[in-house]
Amino acid sequence: MNWTSGKRKTGKSTWRSGAPGEQAGASAVGTVILLVIAAYAVFVGIQYVPQMIESSSVGSILNSIEHEHRAEPIRSAQALRGKVDNHLSINQLNHLRDSFTVREFGNDYIVEVSYERELNLLYETKTIKYANSLTLH
């Protein structure tokens, strides 16, 4: 191999000639910017993904209660509250127990859930409100 010409015996160049305007790879600044953006996305994602999972679990609890009510109608607000507490315990969401309210409205039962979570974006903290309800006839 001839180190002065930058060519192998096949005649193909093994490195750039160094001519101006012919950069071969990413610049250090570009790489650092890309890494900072990726790190920020991971930082926000680490906070947001558990919130999405928690919200999805709450929705799943409400769906389960609705299906159970269709199979065997609930006869009192206390029984409904017991089902809600049981599902929260099964899903390890006991910290949301106070976020659920169960009330009777005529012949219907209403389950409402409302809670807030914070998302740190470094430059500010956003409050995200989660709310859902279920009416059982």
Quick overview of this protein structure:
By secondary structure, the chain is α+β, with helices and mostly antiparallel strands. It has two helices and three strands; from the N terminus they run ααβββ. Strand 1 and strand 2 form a beta hairpin.
Detailed description of the structure:
- The protein is an alpha+beta fold and 137 residues long.
- The chain has one domain (28-136).
- It has helices at residues 28-71, 77-90, and strands at 100-105, 108-120, 125-136.
- A 3-stranded antiparallel beta sheet has the order 1-2-3.
- Strand 2 (108-120) and strand 3 form a beta hairpin.
- Helix 1 packs antiparallel against helix 2 (77-90).
- The longest helix is centred in the middle third of the chain and has 44 residues, at 28-71.
- It is elongated, with a radius of gyration of 29 Å.
Question: Helices, strands, pairings?
Answer:
Blueprint: H1 28-71, H2 77-90, E1 100-105, E2 108-120, E3 125-136
Antiparallel strand pairs: 1-2, 2-3
Helix pairs in contact: 1-2
Radius of gyration equals: 29 Å
Order of helices and strands: HHEEE
Number of helices, where a helix is a run of at least 4 consecutive DSSP H or I residues:
2
**Bulk shape:** elongated
Q: What structural class is derived from the secondary structure elements? A: alpha+beta
* Strand segment count: 3
Percent of residues in beta strands: 15-25%
Give the termini separation: 84 Å
What can be said about the biggest beta sheet?
Answer: 3 strands, antiparallel
Roughly how much helix do the residues carry, as a percent range? 40-55%
**What is the number of domains?**
1
Identify the strand order in the major beta sheet: 1-2-3
**Spans of at least 5 consecutive residues with low confidence:** none
Average pLDDT: 89
